[in-house]
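hey so i finally got around to running the thing on that chain from the lab meeting. sorry it took forever, my laptop kept dying and i had to restart like 3 times. anyway pasting the input first so we r on the same page abt which one it is
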Amino acid sequence: MNLVDSPGWIEYFSGGPLSDKYAQYLQEYSQVLTPTIVLYEVYKKIKKDFGEETAIHQAAQMQKTRVLPLIESIAFTAADVSIKHSLPMADAIVYATAREEKCKIVTSNSHFKGLPDVIFVE
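ok and heres what got predicted. didnt touch it at all, straight out
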């Protein structure tokens, strides 16, 4: 199981230059973890760029994955990893969620480059 970060979903949905690379991690939604903060980021970006109807449709696709809420243990871990790795809040929540679930993050977000358990897509 992998956690696909917001840039991956956005690339995949918008047909960006990395969409084919992300597609291999999104073939089976039941094997994908999605923190609620990723739902927020993707919905916001898609709605802004492509409109509400498209955003709602794509959010529905994301909800076929295993959506994980922000719980207390993830919040505390996120604060710790934010301090340790100088991660912004949303990225720290994503990283902490992956650690809690013992899975890898698939991303092209440069904040994650070089961190353990990250599959960096270029």
